[in-house]
Amino acid sequence: MTIRPILIHPDPRLKKVADPVATVDDDLRGLAADMLDTMYDAPGIGLAAPQVGVMKRIIVMDCVKEEGAAPRPMVLINPQVTWSSDERYTYEEGCLSIPEQYADVERPAVVDVAWMDLDGAMQTERFDGLWATCVQHEIDHLNGKLFIDYLGTMKRQMITRKMQKLKRERARA
Length: 173
What we know:
five-stranded antiparallel sheet; alpha+beta; Peptide Deformylase
């Protein structure tokens, strides 16, 4: 089990488009396991490889929040939204790369996603509610987009300044 450091905004790697994964191998499975450990440790419900400095199209998520419910860790390789509903949903989003900052983001309420699993097999699933928000948020990371990019300029700049201050404080610690 390896907890990897999570990049904090602004970091140029968080604004880059991640590369597609060509083959699933033991290194990738190890990365996925580390990402799940890192996500649960944070704690969070989703994590994209660029957030741990790996520029590959892989995300992990587990949106089970009910007390006593079994976790549902998911690893999605090269995920893409293949359909989204016209119905919209607004959720107060946060991000492990932008700690302690939250804002309402409007996204499609329901999405169909296709991805490759850790065995190299193609999977599809329809997500709604928090799962739909999370998968879209994490896929955005793979495309170099952060949830604050949906906000107005003033709010985005304010959050960015707070993150720059946090990074300075952490560097001194």
